[in-house]
From TrEMBL:
Broad class of the protein's primary localization: cytoplasm
Entry GO CC: cytoplasm
Listed name of the protein: Methionine--tRNA ligase
Keyword terms of this UniProt record: Aminoacyl-tRNA synthetase, ATP-binding, Cytoplasm, Ligase, Metal-binding, Nucleotide-binding, Protein biosynthesis, Zinc
Annotated source species: Agrococcus baldri
Tagged with keyword Magnesium: no
Source species, domain of life: Bacteria
Location of the protein in the cell: Cytoplasm
Function: Is required not only for elongation of protein synthesis but also for the initiation of all mRNA translation through initiator tRNA(fMet) aminoacylation.
Amino acid sequence: MPERFTVTTPIYYVNDVPHIGHAYNEVATDVLARWHRMRGDDTWMLTGTDEHGQKIMRTAAANGVSPQEWTDRLVETAWKPQLELLNIQNDDFIRTTSERHKAGVRIFLERLKEAGYIYHGEFEGQYCVGCEEYKTANDLVPGTGEYEGQLVCAIHSRPIEVVREANYFFKLSEFGDRLLELYDSRPDYVQPEHVRNEVRQFVKQGLTDLSISRNTFDWGIKVPWDESHVVYVWFDALLNYITAIGYGVDDEQFERRWPGVHIVGKDIARFHAVIWPAMQMAAGLPISEHVFGHGWLLVGGEKMSKSKATGIEPKQITEVFGVDAFRYYFMSAIAFGADGSFSWEDLDARYHSELANGLGNLASRVIAMVHKYCDGVVPDVIPDAEIATLMADAVGRADKAIDTFQIHDAVDAAMSIVERLNGYITEQAPWVLAKDEAQRLRLHAVLATNVQGIGTAAIMLAPVMPETAQKLWAAVGGEGDVTAQPIQQAHQWRGTGRVTTVPPLFPRIEQP
Ligand code: MSP
């Protein structure tokens, strides 16, 4: 029986210009999904866009179009192209303005109401439109510059709005104990540890009920029993994870896919690990398997964001370094879970040392030698035991790392093979062995070991650098699609056919 692996990205605010912070999140989720597919797991990757709320309504108006036209345009011109650019293999794309989503949200709300978790009440709060969230005093900081003398949102550095409304509320406050019990009984539910501690601390301080509707604007999903209200955007958005897989309408699909794993930025871990599981408890659903809160990409020491003009679009990088190098860099240079600083210098240095000189060079040298010394035929000889053991260890380590979301460690394990092989070639000096007929078998063993190593590394790198891996795979004579290889047995692959050629994988870049 293949294991189920349903994995989700957050759904992105459609209004934002896609930047490398979003891309980071998408690529990481895609790498996990691709790895699980290559394990043979019943994998499903979901992503999409968050399209309701006041901010979107305002920008649509400022652009002179209806909110629906506005979001349609952004999905087609910005978000879907971003997925294509980054070579993301998502199985589905959910939009919160789609009929299937709206229908699921209505069903969910009705069920919660019937179960007695929704009531009508008065509310006044300080709302940040950027976060689409009511803020507490702890979330606000003194403003600077034009906002000097005012309190502003700590994330957006902009003033909050005081909102007074009669709303529908979700009885979030009733779930504190059950949430604490969830964190204690399933210590790997929220990861990494520092995010888990923060979430736990937040719940321990006591939860207040959550306002889940608004009636001062209408760009949202109407509350089924009171159409003068629309559903609060976060409540609406979190439900994408289940409406996309048939909640309330397709039980078979839902059973097959749910529960899933959520990969989110740490800034929104609280929504996913507090509000969302409480909603699931209230509706009697199985709780998500994991919520993993990754770190932020920092540029110049600050969280990268378009509004602070530190925004970098993925294509600025991919146009120079290529898509695979983009994916590799962010997955290997930053420990998944920690913040990471992006710099062009670091990217350039790693590209040249690890990819061009490390991987690219290894492949072209080995393939050239198999052509030169063996007429392109991979010698059918048992590889060297030391390297075979190293490869088996690397595959085991990487596979475990994926289960604990340590993507950088999985990449490191794959690259440890490349690094070792480069050293091994220097030590074994096949060009010297080739001069001595008596060393023929030794030469064959060295070359066969290298071919196997590159094949193994290609399989392991396929989730991270799909195109490069396929080229490496074809070069060492691998048949068909590298992704058809069982990744947990990557080290057992034995090339016995003919090598082909390696196209230039990582051309030198003079002026990034
Ligand atoms: N729409 C909500 C999510 C709803 S999910 C039910 C949202 N959208 S967002 O577009 O603002 O953010 C999407 C994701 O991008 C979040 O996980 C966020 O953490 C991530 N990132 C945005 N900027 C980032 C960085 N600079 N670095 C890393 N990730 C960042 O929140």
